[in-house]
């Protein structure tokens, strides 16, 4: 499992397990937002299950920083993936949260609400222009002003499609769908031409689909969800139409990434998200599919694909704000992000880095082919998943979507129920 997929998997399981009551009162004692002083002092830096594969890299970064700032010393702590959120919660409650912490947006949200995450719009505004706008915005919290972590590494996935199946349906294999309207039209045609034997999709819509369709997911205050508006209902209604026409695989209600991938591999489904690892798998297990594989961007009606992002947060209670901010920036600056991206399949969040030949120049390999496609789409990508959208909320939405597709509820009723359940869960977060 890649570093990014590992992190995302844990983030999904751990989402918002940090109760605000465990994070302190949120007052401003013990720290300073002024990062303009001398860079000095002993600080701690915590990563998330990275030592095993990247020990030399991080020790090198720390050595560089300490050489640049001789009056500093960085102690590196690496926590295992399992229980990472619980560890952060315990440290927050006990006043032992490290100075600089590797976080995902869902993990930084409760810390920011509790006053434990430094607002970088105040403490590090001069660095904002160094990062992609969408990446910088990903650690903002609805209902709060400020940005609470430096964006670190990004990821996204291109969409694979089967050119042969498109051609058989009378569709242009070199013009895959780009918007949801394109997708719905092509999918219905493919189902009709194949007598329901070939579905275009194998997955039900998720919160990211609603975002890419242009649905307003939450109110501006971050106090309630809003994806049951007219546009949200329209999206789910179209998916119901696909489901009835067998343009959406009948097993989509219970699909996993693995089962969806298998459907695509056996050419029962025409489109599926994936990675360079999948291409290699196609080459070995399904050479006919590999020969006809197309790579395109994620479907979006907003012009922006979805990105996943990791961040580096500064503890607002640190006794060495200048050193902590300087180190968090050092780890996430263009030079070090580029270096890290060449060691693992992730992408830099720094402006201009995606124009590097590493992300633009073909060399004939599948890995590069997918990397270039993903990098191109990331330049103006956004993180559609609300930072307050927990794993329980994802389950509630999925269950209601299933009821709508099966005809047990209308799309409007299903989304109303999903929003109601998510709002209740949101209030329970504090």
From TrEMBL:
Residues 1-22 form the signal peptide. The keyword Membrane applies. CDD domains: PBP2_TMBP_like. The keyword Cell membrane applies. Keywords: Cell membrane, Lipoprotein, Membrane, Palmitate, Signal. It comes from the Bacteria. PANTHER family: ARABINOSE-BINDING PROTEIN-RELATED, POLYGALACTURONAN_RHAMNOGALACTURONAN-BINDING PROTEIN YTCQ. This is Sugar ABC transporter substrate-binding protein. The lineage of its organism: Bacteria, Bacillati, Actinomycetota, Actinomycetes, Kitasatosporales.
């Amino acid at each position: 499992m890649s570093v990014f997929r590992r992190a995302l998997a844990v983030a999904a399981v751990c989402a918002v397990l940090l109760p605000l009551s465990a994070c302190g009162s949120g007052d401003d004692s013990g720290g300073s937002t002024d990062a303009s002083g001398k860079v000095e002092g002993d600080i701690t830096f915590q990563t998330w299950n990275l030592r095993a594969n990247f020990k030399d890299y991080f020790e090198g970064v720390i050595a560089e920083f300490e050489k640049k700032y001789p009056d500093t010393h960085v102690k590196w702590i690496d926590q295992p993936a399992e229980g990472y959120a619980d560890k952060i919660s315990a440290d927050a409650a006990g006043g032992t949260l490290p100075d600089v912490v590797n976080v995902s947006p869902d993990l930084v949200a409760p810390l920011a609400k509790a006053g434990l995450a430094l607002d970088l719009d105040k403490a590090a505004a001069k660095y904002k222009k160094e990062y992609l706008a969408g990446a910088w915005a990903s650690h903002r919290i609805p209902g709060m002003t400020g940005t609470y972590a430096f964006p670190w590494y990004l990821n996204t996935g291109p969409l694979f499609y089967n050119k042969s199946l498109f051609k058989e349906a009378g569709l242009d294999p070199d013009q895959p769908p780009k918007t949801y309207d394109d997708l719905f039209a092509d999918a219905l045609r493919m189902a009709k031409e194949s007598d329901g034997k070939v579905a275009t999709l194998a997955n039900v819509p998720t919160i990211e689909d609603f975002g890419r369709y242009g649905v307003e997911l939450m109110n501006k205050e971050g106090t309630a969800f809003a994806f049951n508006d007219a546009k949200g209902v329209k999206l789910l209604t179209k998916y119901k139409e696909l489901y009835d026409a067998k343009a959406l695989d009948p097993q989509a209600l219970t699909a996993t990434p693995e089962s969806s991938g298998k459907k695509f591999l056996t050419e029962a489904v025409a489109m599926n998200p994936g990675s360079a690892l999948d291409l290699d798998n196609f080459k070995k297990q399904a050479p006919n599919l590999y020969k006809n594989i197309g790579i395109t961007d994620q479907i979006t009606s907003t012009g922006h694909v979805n990105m996943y992002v990791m961040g580096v947060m500064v503890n607002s209670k640190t006794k060495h704000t200048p050193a902590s901010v300087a180190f968090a920036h050092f780890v996430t600056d263009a030079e070090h992000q580029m270096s890290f991206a060449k060691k693992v399949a992730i992408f830099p969040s720094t402006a201009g880095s995606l124009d590097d030949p590493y992300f633009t120049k073909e060399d004939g390999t599948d890995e590069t082919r997918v990397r270039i496609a993903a990098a191109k789409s990331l330049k103006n990508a956004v993180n559609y998943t609300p930072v307050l959208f927990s794993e329980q909320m994802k389950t509630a939405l999925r269950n209601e979507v299933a009821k709508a597709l099966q005809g047990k509820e209308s799309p409007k009723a299903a989304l109303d129920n999903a929003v109601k359940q998510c709002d209740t869960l949101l209030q329970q977060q504090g």
